Amino acid sequence: MAEWVDHGLAARLRELDLASKLIASVGYTGETAKIAGVLEYGDDRIPARPFMSRAVESSAVKVAAAAVLRELTSGRTTAAQATTRLGDAARAAVQVSIAQAGQWAAPNADGGQPLRDDMNRLVTDLRVEIKRG
């Protein structure tokens, strides 16, 4: 009977296991988190403008996730690198969603561009945090 030789499968399985425990959290803190929450979900006077959920559901994030999964299962990247790339892809998709808000979001009461007053803050304050879940 031939002896089994590990050609990297054990290391890949360890990375996959670690990847299943890592979370890329994309969002805001402090006052910007409050603003983002009102914009995302709306309130009694501001319509919901779900710029974050639109981004996470975008094809760009799905394509990035598929590419990262291929790299992870082939051993070309680590769990930490893969999770960071996914977080970066989600952050970029949120920034695109913000930039394109005038194309999809309900207009302001004055007819102005949605998110315009908070656009710069929403882009610059957006953070990605990698943590164990």
Brief digest:
The protein is built from 7 helices and 2 strands, in the order H-E-H-H-H-H-H-H-E. The protein is mainly alpha-helical and 133 residues long.
Describe the fold and architecture.
Helix 1 packs across helix 5 (79-99) and helix 4 packs antiparallel against helix 5 (79-99). The protein has seven helices and two strands. It is mostly helical and 133 residues long. 57% of the residues lie in helices and 9% in strands. It has one domain. The protein is elongated. A two-stranded antiparallel sheet has the order 1-2. The protein starts with 8 loop residues before the first helix and ends with a strand.
Which properties best describe this structure?
two-stranded antiparallel sheet; 133 residues
C-alpha end-to-end distance? 42 Å
Helicity level, as a percent range?
Answer: 55-70%
The parts where pLDDT drops under 50 for at least 5 residues are: none
Mass-distribution shape: elongated
The gyration radius over C-alpha positions equals 19 Å
